[in-house]
Amino acid sequence: MTNHATRTQALQQTTTDARHEHRRSRTGAQMRQLLWWLVGGTRGGKNRLRIIRALNERPMNTNQLSNELDLNYKTVQHHLEMLTENGVLTTSGEEYGKLFFLTPKMDDNLDLLDDIAEQTDIEDEDA
């Protein structure tokens, strides 16, 4: 009986692990598609890439990002709204001092962002 219970528990754990892996791979595929759309497939992709990378270094508010990236405040605000609405960024605080952070989902998929940047040569446009 103990042997059977151990085997049943091991099978249940294997099944649970497989479900979690499937969810992770599905989430990764969804994130890849989202990042292709936000970064690789639009005119504003280069600025969104720069914003994500800057926020990966440290959280910032809109004004700090605008100064750091030498972009118009309204431009940064637009991109931050798009990235937040699509689950790439999250915020803390209110109004002017609101800080932007990468979501855990984005943080877990930064390698996808690097792949897309490399495949589109997005970083070499000005070089």
Automatic annotation (TrEMBL):
Q: Which InterPro entries match?
A: ArsR-like_HTH, HTH_ArsR_DNA-bd_dom, WH-like_DNA-bd_sf, WH_DNA-bd_sf
Q: Where is this region: Disordered?
A: 1-27
Ranges of residues in domain HTH arsR-type: 42-118
- Matching Gene3D superfamilies, A to Z? Winged helix-like DNA-binding domain superfamily/Winged helix DNA-binding domain (1.10.10.10)
Listed Low complexity bias regions: 1-16
- This protein's source sits in the domain of life called Archaea
Q: What Gene Ontology terms describe what this protein does at the molecular function level? A: DNA-binding transcription factor activity
Question: What PANTHER family does the record point to?
Answer: TRANSCRIPTIONAL REGULATORY PROTEIN (PTHR38600)
Task: Please state what the protein is called.
Answer: ArsR family transcriptional regulator
Identify the species of origin: Haloferax marisrubri
Q: What is the lineage of its organism?
A: Archaea, Methanobacteriati, Methanobacteriota, Stenosarchaea group, Halobacteria
